Each structure stands twice: as C-alpha cells, then as structure tokens.
Amino acid sequence: MAKRLFDYQNEEDVNLPVLIKSAEVRIAKNGKKFIAFNFQDQSGHISAKYWNASEADIAQFQPGEVVLLGGKRELYQGNPQIKINSLRLATQEEGNNPADFMEKAPEATDEMSEALNEFIFEITNANWNRIVRKVLADHQQAFLTYPAAKSNHHAFAGGLAFHTLSILRLARSVAEQYSAVNKSLLYAGAILHDLGKTIELSGPMSTEYTVAGNLIGHIVLVDELVVEAAQTLKIDENAEDMLLLRHVILAHHGLLEYGSPVRPQLLEAQILHDLDELDASINMLTTAYQHAEPGTFTERLFGMDNRRFYRPSKGQTYPDPGLQSK
Amino acid sequence: MAKRLFDYQNEEDVNLPVLIKSAEVRIAKNGKKFIAFNFQDQSGHISAKYWNASEADIAQFQPGEVVLLGGKRELYQGNPQIKINSLRLATQEEGNNPADFMEKAPEATDEMSEALNEFIFEITNANWNRIVRKVLADHQQAFLTYPAAKSNHHAFAGGLAFHTLSILRLARSVAEQYSAVNKSLLYAGAILHDLGKTIELSGPMSTEYTVAGNLIGHIVLVDELVVEAAQTLKIDENAEDMLLLRHVILAHHGLLEYGSPVRPQLLEAQILHDLDELDASINMLTTAYQHAEPGTFTERLFGMDNRRFYRPSKGQTYPDPGLQSK
Amino acid sequence: MAKRLFDYQNEEDVNLPVLIKSAEVRIAKNGKKFIAFNFQDQSGHISAKYWNASEADIAQFQPGEVVLLGGKRELYQGNPQIKINSLRLATQEEGNNPADFMEKAPEATDEMSEALNEFIFEITNANWNRIVRKVLADHQQAFLTYPAAKSNHHAFAGGLAFHTLSILRLARSVAEQYSAVNKSLLYAGAILHDLGKTIELSGPMSTEYTVAGNLIGHIVLVDELVVEAAQTLKIDENAEDMLLLRHVILAHHGLLEYGSPVRPQLLEAQILHDLDELDASINMLTTAYQHAEPGTFTERLFGMDNRRFYRPSKGQTYPDPGLQSK
Amino acid sequence: MAKRLFDYQNEEDVNLPVLIKSAEVRIAKNGKKFIAFNFQDQSGHISAKYWNASEADIAQFQPGEVVLLGGKRELYQGNPQIKINSLRLATQEEGNNPADFMEKAPEATDEMSEALNEFIFEITNANWNRIVRKVLADHQQAFLTYPAAKSNHHAFAGGLAFHTLSILRLARSVAEQYSAVNKSLLYAGAILHDLGKTIELSGPMSTEYTVAGNLIGHIVLVDELVVEAAQTLKIDENAEDMLLLRHVILAHHGLLEYGSPVRPQLLEAQILHDLDELDASINMLTTAYQHAEPGTFTERLFGMDNRRFYRPSKGQTYPDPGLQSK
Amino acid sequence: MAKRLFDYQNEEDVNLPVLIKSAEVRIAKNGKKFIAFNFQDQSGHISAKYWNASEADIAQFQPGEVVLLGGKRELYQGNPQIKINSLRLATQEEGNNPADFMEKAPEATDEMSEALNEFIFEITNANWNRIVRKVLADHQQAFLTYPAAKSNHHAFAGGLAFHTLSILRLARSVAEQYSAVNKSLLYAGAILHDLGKTIELSGPMSTEYTVAGNLIGHIVLVDELVVEAAQTLKIDENAEDMLLLRHVILAHHGLLEYGSPVRPQLLEAQILHDLDELDASINMLTTAYQHAEPGTFTERLFGMDNRRFYRPSKGQTYPDPGLQSK
Amino acid sequence: MAKRLFDYQNEEDVNLPVLIKSAEVRIAKNGKKFIAFNFQDQSGHISAKYWNASEADIAQFQPGEVVLLGGKRELYQGNPQIKINSLRLATQEEGNNPADFMEKAPEATDEMSEALNEFIFEITNANWNRIVRKVLADHQQAFLTYPAAKSNHHAFAGGLAFHTLSILRLARSVAEQYSAVNKSLLYAGAILHDLGKTIELSGPMSTEYTVAGNLIGHIVLVDELVVEAAQTLKIDENAEDMLLLRHVILAHHGLLEYGSPVRPQLLEAQILHDLDELDASINMLTTAYQHAEPGTFTERLFGMDNRRFYRPSKGQTYPDPGLQSK
C-alpha cells in the first residue's frame, strides 16, 4: 500500500499525492509572495511553505486540488512540516479525486445511518420520534457528511454523525446503569443536539462558519428546526414533552458562557452535556496522542483549555492511540 | 382624593382598601400559623404579618382579593411595614375591583398601542414590518398588559409595553444623532426583543415564571415565534435580513452569561442592548429613590449588582423622582 | 410492612420509630430553648422543631438515638417537616438499633466488595495492582462503610464504595468503546481517587470533617498513602507508572479551583474526572427528584451550582426516580 | 478633488501625499533594517513596509513628516497595506502641512466650542457651573484638539471634544425623556469626565501615554483638577453638591475593574457611564464598518472585547457608515 | 482587678459595667419590640437581646451609654451572647466614662505619635517630607484616634495609627534587607496611605461610613489632600517625585477590583501593598484566635475571603494570641 | 576587570567570552536555518540570531558551551540584542569553564548553608526539627544549587536557597514584631516550602520541568517527602504538629488557582504565603529595573500579571537597583 503523509519520518524525503486543504497567500520579508499550504490525506494534515509564488502558482494551487508533492519532512519549532522541492497538479490518471484524500470517520456512512436508525427505533414517545425523523430527513445528507467542528474535535468528513453515534452509545450504557434516565428523551436530544451544525458550517471541505452560524449559532438553529417541524406536523410545541426536548437541546453546552441560553434543568439535559464533553475530549486527546511521540507532551490543545497532555512511554503497557473504535 | 398606601407616614394609623398581592402561610416560633402579606395599591406595595391565622383566615385572604386594612405604619429593620389591627374582605359596594389597585404603567394602554403603531409605520423593510405585525397581533393583549419582569424593573401591569416604548423613544434619538444606524432594524428589534416574556411569565398578577419560561427562556421563545411567523408568511427565514433581525433579538442581553446565545455582532444589536440596560437602570433607580428619604441610601438593588444608591438631599436643586414621563 | 417516613402524605398523622440524625439546641424568640431535629429512616430524612425543651429533653434526645415519634407531616415554606406531638426514646424491645434506620447504599457490603475485586483483577500492571491492594487492605472497613460526602452526593452509609463502583462500571463501558484507553490505569485511579475520604471524614454517622480533612484534604491524603505504600512495598515511586497513577488521582477534581493541585494531563485522568462528575450529578439529581412532586422544580441544589431541576409530570412516559440500580 | 488613501481599490496604483503617523525601525530576517510605516490622510490610515532602509532614510522619514508616496494597494492577511515603490519628503510647494492630513472631528473647533457653551449655560447649580468654567478655561486648547484615546475610539484630533459633545447630546435626550434626571449634574459630569486625558495623553499627534497618565490615570487627574479649582474658587469641596460632582466623574468607568475607584451610586453617574459606553461603541463600530466590505465581518475590535461585527450586504436598505453626524 | 466581659465562661453569671456599642430596635414574632444590643469593654464585644422593650427603655439605652449589666453568658448557635436579667444606666459615681470601655490600640497615643515622628525624620526628599507633615498636621487628632476600619481589622480606637506604625516597622525591616528600596518613598506612602479614612469614617465610636466615604472613598480622598497640600506649599504637583508619591498611595489596594484606580507600577508601591495586606491579615487572625478555643476553628472571617482558621491545641508549643506587640 | 555583557552600551562593539544558555534552530523566511541564541555571563543574558547556520555550526554551538563572541549591541523592538559578527568555541586556555558564566546567588553556597543551619537551630519542636534535617540532608546538594524557577524570579544557580533564606530573614522580622507567631512552624515551613523544586526542575543549567514536575508539581512532591521522612523516622504523620507542618507547606501558594490544594488556614501559613510573594516580587522587580533605563518603564513582567513598572529618573534620590543584599 502506498505511503501516506504520516508514514514518513522527520528528515525523510517525501513524494506522494496530497489534497490542498488550505492555501493562504502571504508576503515574505523580501517583499515576494509565498503560499502557506496545509496538505492532507487520510492519515492527517501538515503545513508547508511555497516560496516565491508566481501569479500562475497562486491561480492553480487552490484548496480542493490534488497535487503531487516532492520534498522533505522537517521539524519547525517542534512541529513537523514539509520543505517543498516540487509541486504540480495531479492528472486524472494519477487519481485526482479529492474525496480519496479527506480524513473520514472510522465508520462508513451506511453503517452510521443504520446504527442511527436503531436508536431512533427506541424513542417511544411519538412526538419526539416524529420530530427526530422529520428534522433528520430534511438534513440527512449534510448530517452524514459534515464534520462536527471546523477544527477542535471530530474535524473530519462524517465527524458530525460519528460524534452523534458515539454519544448515543455512551448514552445507552448510562441508561442501562441508571434506571431513572428517560432513554427516549436522551436519545432524541443526542441525535438533534448538534444537527444545527449543518447550517452553521459551510460543508465537509474547507469548512468555515456561515453568516447564519456566526449570527445565530447551531444551538438556536436546530431549536428553530424543531419548532418548525412541530408546526408542520401539527404537534403542539408548548406541550410539556416538546418543552423537554427543546430544553435538552438548548442546554447541551452546559454553561451560559459556552453559548447555551439556559443551563441544564433536567437529568437528561445534564447527562447529554456531560457525555458530549466526554466524547469530544476523548476524540481530541486521541488525535493529539497520534501526533506526539511516546514519552513527550502534546502541543497545547485549544479545545482543552490550552493544556498539554502527556503520552506515556512505550515501555508502559499502553495501547496505541488509534482512532477510537465502537 | 382618598389617601393611598404611600401617603401615610411612619407611626401613622392606616385605614384603607388594598389588594392582596401575595399571602404566604408560615409557622411562628410559638407553633401557630401566620400569614405574611404583601399589600398593594397604585402607590406601591408594603408587607405585613397577620398573627395567629385561623384556617378560615387562610382560606379567605387569598392573593387577588381586595381587603379593608386597619393598622399602623411602622419601620422594621429599616423598611416600612404595616402592623395589622383589623382586616376583612371588601364588599362589592366598597369597590372590590382588583384592577383599581394594581400599579400600572404611567401611560394608558390605548396611548401605548397607538405610539407603537407609529414606530411600526417607520419600519420600511417589508419582511421586518410583516413579521413585527404578525407576531404582535398574535400576542397583542398580553404584550399590552404584562409586566416586563417578575420583580426588578417595570414590574407593573403594562410594564412590558411601557419598557418597549421607552426604548423606542431612546432609539429614535440615537438614530437621529448617528446617521449610520438602520432605523428599521433597530425599531423592529426593540419591539420584539422582550415579547417572549408573554410566554415566559404567567400574567400581570401574582407573576411567576412558567415552565416554558424556565426551560426555554424569553429570548429563544420570541425567536421561535419569529421563525414560525416567517414559515406562515412564506418569508425565507435564511435571507440575510431575517438573520439580522433574529440576531438583534437573540443578542440583546449582550453577554453570554446573561443568557444571550450570541453576543452582539451588529451595530443595531449593540445599541439595542445598551438602550435596554439604560432604560431598565433608570426605571430601577427611579423606583428605588421613591422609597428612600432624601439624604440617605436606597436598599441594595439586586438588579444593579447589589449596589445601594444615594438620593441627594432636598436642599439640592433636585427633581422629585416621580415615575418617568415621556 | 411498616410505614416509613416518606410513605406519609402532608397533613397525615405520623407514628413511627426514627433515628435522630442531628439535634441542635437553639433559643426561641420567647427566650426558651428548643431542639431543631433532623430525623431519618431508610426512606430519607426530615426536619422537626421541639419547642420548650427541658434540660432533661436535651440530655436524652441525642444524635444516634432511636425515638418513637408522634405528630403530623406539614409543609413549611415549601418543604415538608414534622409537627411533633409526642416523643420518647425507643426501648430495646421496640427495636432500638440505629443501623436499621440509616440510609444505605442499594448494594450490600459483601456484594460491593466482591464486585471491586473483579475490577482489581483486571489491573494488569503489577505495581498498580499491588499499590491498590495494599492501600485498600489498610482501609477496607472504612472504605466499605463511609459515605462519599458529608452532604451533597452519596451521603449515606456505604456511599463511598457505591460511588466508586458506579464509576468503575461507567469506566468499563468507556474502555470498551474507546480502544485507546489504558483500562488498568483508569481502574486503579478510580478505586483510589476518593479513598482519602476515609481520613477526611469522621465516619458513617454524624459525619464531619476531621482536622486532617480540613488542613490537608482527601486528594493529598490518598496520594500520601500511595507513596507510603510504595515505600513499604519497595516500589520506585518515581518510576513513570507511579507518576501516572499519582497524577490520575491528584487531577481528578479537574480544576485547580476545585482543589486538584494539577489539572488532568493524561487521557485517563480526564476520563476519570468526567465520570466522577457524571456519577455524582446523577446521584444528586435522582435524590432530589425523589423529594420533588412530578410537574414541579426541586430545591436549589448546592452541589449543582444552585440550580433547580424540573421533575416532569407523571403523564410523561417517565421512570420513577428510584435509587439507581446497577 | 484629489484622491485620498481610502479612495483607492486593492491592486490599484497609488500616488499621493500622506502624513507619516508612525515609523518603527525593525530588523528583517536578512539582517537588514526596514521601516514599518503607518501613513494617514483625512480618509484614514494604512500600513506599509519600507525594505532595506538606509540610515539616511531612517533619519528623514520621521513621524509628522509629509511624504509623496508611490506604490500599490494590496491585501496582506486580509488587511489592506501599501507596497511602496517610491517615497520622498514633500516640499513646501507641494503642501507640506501636517495638519491637512490628520483625521479630524466632523465638526470644526469653533462650532464645538460654541455648542459646549450652550450646554454649560444650562448648568444651573452655581458651584458646578463655576468649577466647569474654571477647569475648562485652564485646559481649553488641549480639550478642543486632543483625541479621546490613543487608539480605540475617537482617536483623531478634536476627538475628545467631539466625544464629549456627542454624550451631551444623548444626555439632553435622556433628560427630556426621564424627568427624574438632574440635568445640571449630568451635563457638568459629562463635560469633565474625560478632561483628564489632556494630562494623560501627550497630544494630538503621535499620541502616547504620559508618565502621569500611566501612574495616576485620567480619572483621578481630573478629580484633582476639580478639588484644586474648588480651593482656588473658595468653594467647600466637601459640600454635598461637590461630592456629587466628583462622584459622577470618578464613577464614569462603571466598574472597578475598568479603573473607577468607586462604582456609580447616583442616577446621573449610572447614566453618564451608560452614555459614555454607547457613544464609544457607536464610534468604534462606525469606524470599523468603514474599513470592511459589505457582506463581511470587520477585524476583531480590541475595544469591543475582541468581537468581530458584520457589515450587512449592500442589497439591504442600509445606510453608508459615514462618520456620525449630529 | 475587676472582671471584664471576656473573663466570664459560658453559663457563668455576669455582673459588670459595659458600654453600649450599638442598639437596634426590632419587632419580635409576638409583635412586641426588643433591642438587639452589642455591649463592649476593653476585652471585646458581645451581643444580647432585651425582650419586651418599653419606649422608655428604647429612649435611655442608646449607643455610647455605660450600663450596669446583670445576666448569664450563653452559647447561641455557637457564638457567645449574654442573657439579660437586669439592665440600668450607670451613675457618674459608678464610673460612667465611655472611653474607659473602648477597645484601644496596645500603644498609647503619645508613644505612637513619637514613633511616627522618628519615621518622618528619615524621609529625606524635601517635598515628600513637607507634604507628609502638612497633611498629617491637618488631621493629627483624627489620625491618632480613628480605627482603621469599621469592622474587619484594627477596628478599635487608635487602630489607624497603630496599623500605620506596624506597616512602618515592617517597612524598615524590608528596606534594610533589600538595598534597592527607596526608604523615603516607602515611609511617606505608608504614613499617608490610609489617612483618607479620617474622612471616610465617622469617628472612633459607632463608626459608620460618611457620604464622602461612600461616594469618593479613602484612597482618592487622601490623594486630594496631597494635591491641595502641594498647591498650598507651592510644590509642583506634576514633578516626578510628586507623581511617585501619589502613585504609591493610589495603588496601595493592589488590584483595581479592590478600589485602586491604578495597579502598582513601582517597587515601593508593590511593597506597600504587600505589607498592608500582611499586617491586616495578622491583626484579623490574632483577633479571631482570641475568640476561638484551642483545637477549634474560628468563625468564617469576611476579610479573609470567608475562610475559617484553625487555632492549634494547647499541647503545641504555641504562643497565646495576645494582641501583637511591637 | 574585563567587561561583561551588561557593561556594553547600545551600538557599541562587543568582544567577550559568553556561555550559550540556549540555542534553538529555526528556519528563516529564505528557507535557510538560523540559530536563535541566548548568551549569558554573570551580568545577565541577551539574545542573538546566527544566520545561515551550517550543520557543523549547529553541532558545535550547543547550550553549555563557552564561546568567543564578536558583534555589536543593538536595540530590536525596544529590547537589546547582539548582532553577531564572529563566533567560535573558547579553548581551555581561554577559560572554558561554564560555571564562571552563570548568574549566581549573591551569597556563596557555604554562607547560605551556614545561615540556614542557624535558622534550623531555632526550630524547637523536635518533630519539625528532625523532619527538616532529614529532608534537607537527602536533597542538600540540589537545594543549594538549583534555581527557584525556570524563569520569573530567582532564576539563577543557588536561587532556590537564596530565595528560601530571604524569606527566613523576613520571617524573623515578622516573628519579632508579632508575638503570636509560632516561629518554629514558620521557619520549618519556609525551609521546606519550595524544596520540591529539586524534583520539579531538571537542574541549575538549561532548566526544564521534569515529567514529575508537570504531573505532580513541587507542592505535592515535597509533601510526599515529608510523610516518607516521618515513616522513616517513626514519627506519627497524623499527630497535630505534623498536620500543621504539612498544611503550611501545601497552602503556601495561597489560592487554589495557583496550585495549592488547600488555602491557608493557619496564621503561619498565611504569613509564609505573603512573604513568599513579597520576596519573589522584589526579586523580579529589582531584576527588571536593572534592564530598564532610568525614567522608562520595564518590559511587561509575566510573573507580575503582565504589568510594566516605572524605573524613576536618576535625578531622584534613588538607589541603584543592585541585586538585593541581606
């Protein structure tokens, strides 16, 4: 199997096709333009600088293009980067299919869709069940392909659905261990909680915040979808069960400072918030461990209050931080 | 004209009809029950304790009843209260009409309704104009009669509409002084910003938070009304002007910690937030000054970060803190 | 089966044996002494005032005594209390055994001990396994009978072990779902994390903080036990695996403000902190729901940032908030 | 009329006289010196780098000089800058008059002075009136020409007086709408509140903080001027009206964290603080909108808690964000 | 020597003259008035309730009167109080001299005045020396007799001067140990830093905050005295040495949140702040230890962030916490 | 005597031996490598960039080497740096002894050791005395040679012991001035409080945090040494005096946010915390003054909340900020 970006060591010569994830044109201290690239394939992403960029270079090396990259992997201020020796667009024959280079959720779209359906099946409250099906049906495609965030955690294609499924699996364990939990409410809230990201974010590639994302935010965006679905399905949005569902969604960031307009005031709202943080943390740390050598600390992680985490030495009976499985 | 509650001095005998605003049954140190009353008429409200309450007393002296009160005004830990000597229900002949005893906005409902219409007339963006008219029409009665808060500021019948109008009048001054302001957006946002309180609060008397008020909150409740109105009126809720209007409403508490899911990111959102705080502060301080003697400090005001304010001495060329006029 | 404290309704006559959980002597407004009691049996605890207490009353009605209580259940400022009509010490024949009246963990001590051993069996790192066995053996009795807190969560006999087991069960689910987790480290940390409470707290009844608890705190107290055990067992306390274990324990409060001297810097430290909070929250909420009527809000919960939680109406397909089972 | 800095588009050739606002000498990565310029004319200011600067260049291109600038406008990391092709000092014939190039308040000094006098005329308390006239007379020239801040808001010549006038105009609207307001106190406080900036800042050009500004701060500096004026005018500084005036000035930053030694404890102190923030915010946002394209977000604004603001699309019925008029 | 208040044990009969420190009239649950007294002599102060107070009682038992008190010392909710059996005004013959009953600084006024002069003698900068002498001379009497605070620390007659002297003595040690310290500046700042309390507080007995104290605060009040003294003495208030002195005074609370308008930006300003806190803490803790039994915790101390402190057991080689000596 | 680093002025040619304190390899904008040096001798440290570094340069110019440096002192963005003209390793004949170039405590190791012993002699509690001697004996060498911090304060060889001694000298003054202080406890706590830094830090040169330092922290590390010493010496670690000593050490950072697991709850714990901050502040400020010109502000000091401090003009009767003497 062909070598991928993270199969190379530092100081090793690099030669492989990669996808341009981002390409920012800047001006160097010598007054000439250069391109600050971020390249990726399914093994991860890495930065590189392309000096003395001509206008033609700038025109052709756009985000979303697949390029053939020759150079060397180096350490720059502790972080790996590629020193570029050669760069050109890949031809169709060479496999110019951007989708082949994107990081993806560890489960296939079909599997995730099926797994979701099994959880929906267990939502026994009819209103909640109908609302979930309606909203999900309206945004199915985006829900299964969008990342869960621009960066931070689950920032890969399918990340939104995968993050949702991971929470649902944790939720099942919790509901089995604690009999007071209303499983239907917890599942319905978990499925919908981040679905507003399909409006907040621009899509699976070169992900940015939309104007709606900035001005309204994904928490309120999905709440609006819920009340509109209720209006369409002729469900009384002010019935208690509908208030409970909306509350669980609105409160899932836990603190007002984190953008929830209300703090959790239901057992299930508190649990959803806690599981959301737990799964996001595990995903961030697992990803960070992959980029740190055993026996060293990771970079500071913005999503974890700028903490650095220690990846224990190999000698330990320690698992490899592969992507989390089910 | 008959004397009202706040026309009496300390140590003066009191004899007048009042409305029972609240009546809480408690147990005294001697094991007997008493009723902790809050009486009101249009001049304000005052507390009183009714000792050795019988079950019959408890049954008849309910919130919303008009009673004939005999007693003496006294100071208790610096605050005025009534020492009750006699208490009985008022008869119909004696004028048992609760509405006559409620604190009210200084403007009549009709005047406020008319003044509002003049502002709506100046909203030149068609979508904003239609949304405002639709949402207002659906909640007209409550909007004109509800208070703006359970306590804190504008906690009187019609307070919600009066607070809204006060902000609109400030907004007109600001829009005239600063030409960059989009007057239509500022007016539309001002009219709708607190309208969710018609769902958040239980009504003009014995005001409490509803379950929807606690679990969803008035900011999101009115945002939901806006998107549902758009759905009904076939206005694209994701058109930029609709995003702007929703943003101005959602951001009006200014800080995430105060319950806005997004902070102001538009000039008009920032202005609405600032004027909302300005009018609320002036109302709270004017009310507090009314209950403090010249040359002394008010009680600590919860809504003003627990600060006490100084009411200057009479000798000063100082206006009487009457209720604010237009 | 005999009726217990929480089998009575408001306004119902009460007649049953209870345990005195606390008894505080105060002076009433009439200058006479009274006793503020807190009575309990296994169904919960409730307060009551005993007026005009004689010195003999004060001498005999001490915490830890079983008494025969006659009176009526009433509501006082929204909370239930007992109005005392008669009170006397129970005789031996009447069943004066305090242990029969204490709230207890829903699992028996033996079962919990056995379940713990199964988890210890899965700790494959020899140093961690030996340290856990040594420290646990030295504090076995207290560990199985102490509460997990003076009030807040798991404040009942056996609460410390039950809380620990609940976390271990959640930890098993997480370790199965996320392959990067070092299960041995997570289990060892979970078992030891709160064990310092056997020194911090005074015991299962009339629980108070000890001087060591106040001046050192349970987090450092158990860390000290770990290094002393290492010294005894001739394990190098500065070997990496020992640093990891101590870190997981020291960091389990998550934030410096909450008393951890370091923040989590290991995947397992972060997970233990999150699961600790999750289990504590569920326990606090389940307990609070038991004391709230369906369709109402609980009291403000100190351990949950003073939030009130809503217990949904019976009409909902909602489980009874019984004590959580396994 | 000749083109000015902000009449040019990106990628357009630039050729015009500008004022050097600041010129910082730095060392490039190639070891040679360059000058980081900030050029300005009355349309705004823009940065530029001058590579390989000789000692002669450094000596002549000083802040305060007018230069003839040839180059091209470009985007650098999203912000406009000038790429310099040629640069030389302007001759007297070419119009080397720095004052012609400084951003100025939108009203002339004379008009502002006259407008201020009208407000002073309405201060009916004799002590306040005399203090205001005395302090203003002692610092008239600086008050009319200084900026209101080094950067942030009203950072242009005459900005201090213009900001003061804007607040006074808002204050008039508020005093007319709310009858409880003491107009004399509000006006006197508004005129003096920022006058200490004439000592805190170094002057209208190349504005820096003075040592007195850093060690004492403008709030206390003007309070000291007030007590010294009282001493000179033989007014009792401890009479109540003098305490009120000093309080309104000292409290105008609203929060201790923002440098006020006391929080507002008077209605007028609270209003002055609110209007100060309102006018400063509107000025910051209007300026930021001028530098952002319609349909995009501004830069992060330091003075607005690092928020970015959205400038709506042209299609909207939106006013051009010209400098605010009266 | 006659027994004083704190020479009595709990449950011991009490019979001695005391000073009424405060007397608040309240209404009991039975509707009758009572007086909540705070009695004091030089050994400390203690509270007591006087039931069924007649109007004559209220008229005669005013703060500042010496009374003969008969009763019993009791514990009420963990705090000592007196149960009053008899109470009457002391006659002149019985020694009705309030000053004999006030807590005082452990050094005599004359000694403190002399000790201060020795420090002033060491201020070698002429401007600082003249300013200190002038301001001190204008407020000498108050400076030597006022407390340093209403409650919290050094809340006794002469406390302000004693606190100042304690800081000066610490300052001397520090200046001797660290040669970089400007001793003149540190001494001048220390002497003046709290002198504004002679205006902020009402006097040595029944100490309250004045209106000037509330609206301006002691930090700015003394700064104003300094600039007025400079104006009188024809010292340039803007010379650098005068800026330094004013800065040291203004910054002595260390943080803006604590009321300093600027944070320390001079070595001596930082040291003065640190020594001010150190001496205040030691005074608060020593006083609290005096009221706690060995082997117990003190009450929560408001001035120490509500912490409780542990007074070690007698067995320890621990000094008695007498009032601190020089 | 030969000139040292801080004897040179800006723009002066430099020629002297220095120690390489740190050497970081980076990549310049032209794609070539350069070394960012930090050179030091006993007068201080200064940065420099070495352009176009060859692999041989990188290999030989390692931290810890003495080099002969030729170049010029320049200002770069307000901070001094060296422009390198020539650089080569020093030979043994030229005095290649790193220890000669390290900043050191102003007292010799022997003197400090002796001075420490005198303080230990005054610890009259036998347990505390034995524990201090045992722990100190086990870490004597490191204690006398380590710095007190990686950067911030006392970041020089012997800084840990010197900081400790400075606190002890302040402690002596305080104990003499305030008779309630337990001198033995204060001294024992002062000696041990930072001793965990001998494990937290890597050593006197190129100081870094160890894994134990990051994961456990110096506060808990020394507490563990104390309990292990007690175990070895057969002292009951739970006797009250041992709790007191551990508390004083654990609480010395004062606030939970600063890493203390408990806040001070003993007089001596509070004093140790205050003196620790006082000595650290004075050291940081004295060092910063040495690098600032009279009449200017220092850089922002990270350890002082990013404040800048003003170094007064020479004209003042101001001492030179030499290193603090005893």
TrEMBL record, chains A, B, C, D, E, F:
One of its GO terms (molecular function) is nucleic acid binding. Keywords: Exonuclease, Hydrolase, Nuclease. GO terms for biological process: rRNA 3'-end processing. It holds the Pfam family tRNA_anti-codon. Residues 160-281 form the HD domain. This is CMP-binding factor. It comes from Lacticaseibacillus brantae DSM 23927.
